[in-house]
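Curious: explain these tokens?
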Amino acid sequence: MKKDQKFLIALELNLSKLSKKNRDKIVSKYYDIIEEEKTKKRKITSILKDLGKPEEVAKREIENLKKNNFKKAISLKTV
């Protein structure tokens, strides 16, 4: 299995607490990032190093979702 595939599978597993919709959206985002960087002739090891460990990426994405959901909830209450 290729390193990028391993990264994406590990990322998805670490996002297992999220809905399938959110999980798919995040995994797709990182798939696109990896593919875009590959077109720039970057090595996969360099790309993955810059992204960070899948566990760290998942944690960061979950925190971002929580912040965004909190902001949406606040804006709905003030409308």
Notes: Residues 54-78 form the longest helix (25 residues). The chain has four helices and no strands. The chain has a mean pLDDT of 91. The helical segments are 3-14, 20-39, 44-51, 54-78.
